[in-house]
Amino acid sequence: MSKKTIEFKTESKKLLDLMVHSIYTNKEIFLRELISNASDAIDKYHFNSLTEDNLEHRNDYEIYLDVDKKHRKLTISDNGIGMTYDELIDNIGTIAKSGTLDFLKNMKGKDLKNTDLIGQFGVGFYSAFMVSDKVEVVTKSPYSEKAYKWVSQGEEGFTIEETEKDSIGTEITLKIRKNHDDENYDEFLDDYKITELVKKYSNYVRYPITMEKEKEVPKLDDEGNEIEDKFETVIEKETLNQMTPIWEKNKSEVSDEELNDFYKTQYYDYNDPLLNIWTNVEGKLTYKSIIFIPGKAPQNLYSEKYEKGLELYAKGVFVMDKCKELVPDYLRFIKGLVVSPDLNLNISREILQKNTQLTKIQKNLEKKIIKRLEKLLDKERDQYIKFWKEFGVNIKYGIYDNFGINKDLLKDLILFETVNEDGYITLKEYVEKMPKDQKDIYYGSAASKTAIKASPQMDRLKSKGYDVLVLTDEIDEFMISILNEYEKHKFKSINQGDLDLVDEKEKETIKSLETENKDLLEKIKESLKGEVDDVKLSTRLTDSPVCLVSGEGVSFEMEKVMEQLPGDKSGHQKAKKILEINPQHDLFKAINHMYENHSEDLDDYASVLYNQALLIEGLKINDPVEFSNKMVKILVKASKTGE
Ligand code: ADP
């Protein structure tokens, strides 16, 4: 095969351009990226060798660094899985990771400094071009007869050709740029700097990262004794990283700081974790685990690209990076590892899914995490609120998911803002604070607490001193509908159905008023031409003239959420719209008057009132121009009659 020149795809070119012109100030992380690719490649080799007969079992895994100052070259070699011709083109020649590029382009300089974008979005390999103007990859895969050489100077494209390589693995050589202006590249050719970077970023990589170093040692005489003041230079291979797995130590020997550092390097985070949970279980099933709850939710937590999972080690040997069977969906944000001597090394991914030991570990860890969160809520409220702000939505999802199977486990972890309280409260606290005559737990859905506070539906609840939970997340009402009740108290939406807030006597009064005004209510409904399902006199309003509520079942907020879901919407249930009118309000009296006098203005009033109710509810009005015209007409008329 002769040498081929291939152009980069458009996205790759753009990304490369960004790298070459180095928008990212933290250039030194290129080494971490390449070492972590090398470590991944060794993982892959190792994993495959467990299940494939024709791959030799090995125990000489190594990542080898070589500095050639004279030719300004830095080489990172590994004896991992290597790449075939196609893999070289697909993996390194193309950046197909959609989203990454858009994201990078939209970031401002300041944010770039603070965010570990390159780690998060996996543009890893390309970071080599931040420090290097020519990158050469020589690689041999066990699945290919031949070895290949890939060379690129950034910009346009790369060449690829056959080459000789004795052993399986990959060798990446960077031609380090020359210093210019205040940009120092020489440091990446300095043994000490490289050692420092490895310790800083790659200390816990589980394979030895080695480098040959010149050392001054005392000269020996023929009998092997040191000669005073005489030294000679020898070259020694040194392992730069610490490797000793942190979980092999006793928990008491590991300081919080060490554990935080471990978390940060291992899981590419700039922030300390919020908490760690260290478990050591011995018995029928023996395992150790260290779980971290991050301090901040990763930016891609809710994207498809995010993979949940814990690192899995069996008999001290690394098995895989993201074992998702260990993490229930709603705890997808946790990081950490599980080590168990009981697990068989020869586990393939298919077997993992059915592995009962893993399921047991998962269940135990889940319980442990929830216990720990309960303790945090109980003892360190501020920290728990921090957790809640970052990850609360996941807990809500956990309640809703799987038809509520976990709701009892999780219901006391939910925090709510409420209309009466300044901070957050739990359901337990809400119930404890309920006035004696309050039976139900009230909640309102809107974009904000202020909107709920101001909504007409609050009128009577306010006067009774009942507190109202404020729901603002999309998932909230779905979660509430799954919870259904808390300690026998039903949940009631202030925007929905019958609130049952008045006593029997008042009910009777409203009922008879309704019978009395049956024709008027019917007439308003008619004039709204099918816009509402019903028009009623309200028991929940005291000061406001009207409000819109939904019937039992689907609420307005749920309807909005379901509208946003992809796919066919024809089967979705709609919220039932009920217009409620306050019989005590002067406006009702005015309408009543119009009706009795057969006034033609009644239609306009009905329409304006309905549209107002829609607006208060945060719903769209059908025809804003018509609404505004009608308002003007009413105002002009009122000003003329001096009413
Ligand atoms: P990521 O590591 O996030 O997938 P990179 O751009 O760093 O993104 O690497 C792209 C791909 O190139 C990797 O997924 C891997 O398949 C391949 N690759 C990179 N470095 C090596 C290596 N040293 N050995 C084998 N494959 C590698």
- What is the CATH top level name of the largest domain? Alpha Beta
Radius of gyration: 34 Å
Distance between the termini: 94 Å
The computed structural class is: alpha+beta
Beta-strand content bin: 15-25%
Which shape, going by the Cα principal axes?
A: elongated
Number of helices: 22
Largest sheet: 9 strands, mixed
- Binned, the helix content reads 25-40%
The unreliable regions are: none
Q: Compute the average pLDDT.
A: 87
* CATH architecture call of the largest domain: 2-Layer Sandwich
Attached small molecules: adenosine-5'-diphosphate
As for the CATH topology of the largest domain, it is Heat Shock Protein 90
Specify the CATH homologous superfamily of the largest domain. Answer: Histidine kinase-like ATPase, C-terminal domain
Strand order of the largest sheet: 1-6-5-4-7-3-2-8-9
Tally of distinct domains: 4
How would you characterize the overall build of this protein?
It contains 22 helices and 23 strands. With 643 residues, the chain is α+β, with helices and mostly antiparallel strands. It has 4 domains: 236 residues, Heat Shock Protein 90, CATH 3.30.565.10; 134 residues, 2-Layer Sandwich (Ribosomal Protein S5, domain 2), CATH 3.30.230; 110 residues, 3-Layer(aba) Sandwich (Rossmann fold), CATH 3.40.50.11260; 122 residues, Up-down Bundle (Four Helix Bundle (Hemerythrin (Met), subunit A)). The strands form 4 sheets. The chain has a 9-stranded mixed β-sheet with strand order 1-6-5-4-7-3-2-8-9, covered by helices on one side. It has a 6-stranded mixed β-sheet with strand order 16-15-18-17-20-19. A 5-stranded mixed β-sheet has the order 10-11-14-12-13. Helix 11 crosses helix 16. The longest helix is centred in the middle third of the chain and has 24 residues. The mean pLDDT is 87.
